[in-house]
Amino acid sequence: PSGRNIYYNMGLLFQARQKWQDAADQYETIFRLTPGNDPKFAAILYGAHFGLAEVLPHLGRTREAAAHLRDALRIYPDTVESLNNLAWVLASSNDPEIRNGTEAVRLAKRACELTKHQVTLFLGTLAAAYAEAGRFEEAVATAQKACALAAKSKDQALLKKNRELLQLYRAQKPYH
After folding, report:
1. Please, are residues 143 and 124 in contact by the beta-carbon 8 Å criterion?
2. What single string gives the DSSP state of each residue in 90-109?
3. 176 CB contacts (<8 Å, ≥6 apart)?
4. Which of 16, 42, 61, 87 is most buried by a 10 A CB count?
């Protein structure tokens, strides 16, 4: 494996062990080793951006995480995980400067379209995005679909979370 792959794998290992700064250091090394946007390194650059986006919120760097998700989507525009994760950040961040309900709806809708509205987590994100955009009727309807899908798949944790979110949306409140 190339040096980039070693750093990427080390990043994953540190991430799995919740050693957030060590993981971030590994992913960031990939960018130092890969100047520019050479297409032959697209996959490893995407992985480093996505990995950093998962790690940085644990270091209090949510704004940077959102930027890395945007970079990941520039490399591979239709990756459902990146679409969903950026939509979630834009819909639910504690930082009002990060939130953007309109963009969150656009991204979450795309993730749901690509998965034929069959992924509970993505429907939950779309509901949160609608709520952040002030579209509470759509938020409630989408959260109800997420609850039904979670119940059908017997995913009790997702069912519980979506029911909690549904109550917020019924009260005309977004989730932050």
Report:
1. yes
2. HHH-S-TTT--HHHHHHHHH
3. 92, 93, 94, 99
4. 87
What tokens were used for 125?
Answer: 């994100």
**Residue at 127: amino acid letter:** A
How far is 150 from 48, CA to CA, in rounded Å?
31
Q: What span, in angstroms and rounded, lies between the C-alpha atoms of 120 and 145?
A: 8
pLDDT in tens, the chain (176 residues): 578 999 999 999 999 999 999 999 999 999 999 877 678 899 999 999 999 999 999 999 999 999 999 999 999 999 999 999 999 999 999 999 999 999 999 999 999 999 999 999 999 999 999 999 999 999 999 999 999 999 999 999 999 999 999 999 999 999 99
Can you point out the beta strands (E) in the chain?
A: none
The answer to whether the beta carbons of residues 175 and 92 sit under 8 Å apart is yes
Greatest Cα-to-Cα distance within the chain, rounded to the nearest angstrom: 53
Q: Which amino acid is at 42?
A: A
Q: Contact, 139 vs 169, CB < 8 A?
A: yes
Nearby residues of 15 by Cβ (< 8 Å), 6 or more positions away: 23, 51, 54, 55
Predicted TM-score of the model (pTM): 0.93
